[in-house]
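Quick start: read one record
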Amino acid sequence: MSFRTASRRVQLPKPARAVPSTSAALHDLTISPKSKSPIFRQGPGGRSSTTGHVATVFGATGFLGRYLVQKIARTGTQVIIPYRDEDEKRHLRLMGDLGQIVPMEWDLRKPHQIAENLRHSDIVYNLVGREHETKNFTYDDVLVKGARDIARIAREEGVERLVHVSHFNASHDSSSAFYRAKAAGEDAVREEFANATVARPSTMFGHEDKFLNHMAFWPIVYRLNKGQTRVKPVHVFDVAQALSYFLVSQNAVGQTYSLPGPKEYTYEEVLDIVSTFTYKTHHAPSVPKPVAKLVAKTMDKALWWPTISEDEVERRHIDDLPAVPAGHKSWDDLGITPEVLEDVAIAYLRRYRDFAVYDNPIERGGKPLRTNSAYHTVE
């Protein structure tokens, strides 16, 4: 490139081309604690980078799974997505860069498919759960035998890390078959994979939950026990953040983390919050437990889609644990401050408002997540 002046011709230097940096720093290197093999992080950071980690997320197509996949895929981790139905995993493809989301078909009853899904991973998450039994899968099939098989095959394939998701109320002495199976599943995982990390979140709420959404349009199922059952709901974003922390933390190996919400409510108090945000008052009756179980059993046999089971009725009468069990770690050990329900619930409940009050500001607690529109002129 050149231009001519009055006296002479001036030759300008060519602009230098940007050359991508290929150098790596010490913090880009991670030594695998088991195989002692190096794991290099490459790229500028974010979803277009490569952390060198490969994670298999069993249960990725569920409520918690989609948020965990989004958390770890956005950092450049390659994620294996085991799926059963073709349509269940399509939305997950967008959560990582090209080639970083790898869907693979699987069946919990086929060990060779489990092995194929986790063979190349250095961490495995087991989020598989079932809140109601079906004719094909009982609680023990999914929460105990399935968890044992995943842990055993992960150990046999040389996987370094296993994260198993249980429940805050898991107990061998619980009156709920679901909670008993969760406790038995923890024991089975520990027997097969001694250094597994166990996460025990309480009831989770979020955009696709069965907690706030059911309260908004089917409140009678939360009026059982006269709405006096005490719960500690936790935001699904916070649980996903905690699980993503286990990907790189060596302090979590072999530990159990109880992850309840930061505040305790009765079901009646949560229903009051839902009514306040939606501008809808619910007058659902409180049904006695024997009647509710009979109705649940009848509906479960008469309808082909899941509604509410007898065991879910039982769980509506069980309080969350009053405190984190001794020996368990919790939010403080992760450096995470979990969200309070009423601070973020409006984002999930506004859609249940009528059109006339849809944009009304929040009147109880929380932060205004949407400001009123204002017209202005530009001169």
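The first strand starts at residue 2 and ends at 4.
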